[in-house]
Amino acid sequence: MYSAQELVSQIDALTSLPTVYLRIREQIDSPDGGIHEVARLVAADPALTARLLRVVNSAMYGYDGTIDSVHRAITILGLQQVHDLVLAMSLESVFRGIHPESMDMNRFWRASVMRGLTARAVALACQQPAPERIFVIGLLADIGHLVMYHYVPGPAQDAASQSTASGEALYLAEQRLVGCDFAEVGATLMDHWKLPGCFAGVIGAQTRPRLGGEYARDASVVHLANHIVRADELTLSSEEAVAGVDPLVWATLDLQPRSIGDIREEAELHLAAYVSLFFPGGRSR
What sequence ranges are listed for the domain HDOD (predicted)? Predict the structure, then answer.
């Protein structure tokens, strides 16, 4: 049996956050940091600059090619959103050394983008603040599985198989067979990376949002997004997608199950474009 801390402690041997991201975060966290220095750091990396401008001018933000410089992008979006975008665009390189034999990485990243887009669409539907940050949290929400399938593939696969066969919630099967679940591992990794507290808080509570405290509402968003992504992967209907959603989620978000079809359609509309934006080495299907 393994703890989330044990699994995450092994990850440093294979991967770490990129230096450019760490320098940008240092500037954002510093009382002396500011837009000019963050813009200089981003502009020093031509590939990062090109990708950031592509994302900012995409349908997510609606500027349609009118933002033509890093400085302007940061001025309009703010340092928090730039931090989150640079983090999201770093994921493929961060996990380049992790290739679990039992995982289709293209499928994993596709599902991650779908989850992020769905979480953002849910946040917009219920007028949640900071939908772009919810997008990034949704993108990261299943990272725990990437760690588990790399370090403990046997027990992780057994948990998935037993969950599918019996209908038991996956996180409960993982707790029983692995010792921890994907949400715990993901939250522990967010803490290990010293990301803002909402990342660990939301990701850790995504399986049981009612236990999320101040993050319960955002965790409810990701919880709902998880069900929609699973339906997408299994080609289930939107009605089937909502079958296992925690009933309290609907009340927390003030949404009706019938809204799922529109939310799913909105996410699917942008999926291929955003896979290519955030994971250019992958494919959309």
Answer: 14-209
pLDDT interval class at 10 (50, 70, 90): confident
Helix/strand/coil (H/E/C) assignment for every residue in 77-142: HCHHHHHHHHHHHHHHHHCCCCCCCCCCHHHHHHHHHHHHHHHHHHHHHCCCCCHHHHHHHHHHCC
Closest CA to 22 of 277, 199, 193, 197: 193
What are the start-end ranges of the H helices in the chain?
4-9, 19-29, 35-43, 46-56, 70-77, 79-94, 105-125, 131-140, 143-151, 153-166, 170-177, 182-192, 197-204, 216-233, 238-241, 247-253, 260-278
pLDDT in tens, 137-146: 999 999 999 9
Angle, vertex CA 207, rays to CA 205 and CA 213, nearest 5 = 30
- Both tokens of residue 45? 């990396």
Radius of gyration of the chain (CA): 18
Domain-wise residue ranges, the chain:
4-278
User: How far is the C-alpha of 245 from the C-alpha of 207, rounded, in Å?
Assistant: 10
User: Rounded CA gap, 16 and 278, in Å?
Assistant: 18
Query: How far is residue 120's CA from residue 263's CA, in Å, rounded to a whole number?
Result: 9
pLDDT in tens, 68-123: 999 999 998 899 999 999 999 988 888 887 878 878 889 999 999 999 999 999 99
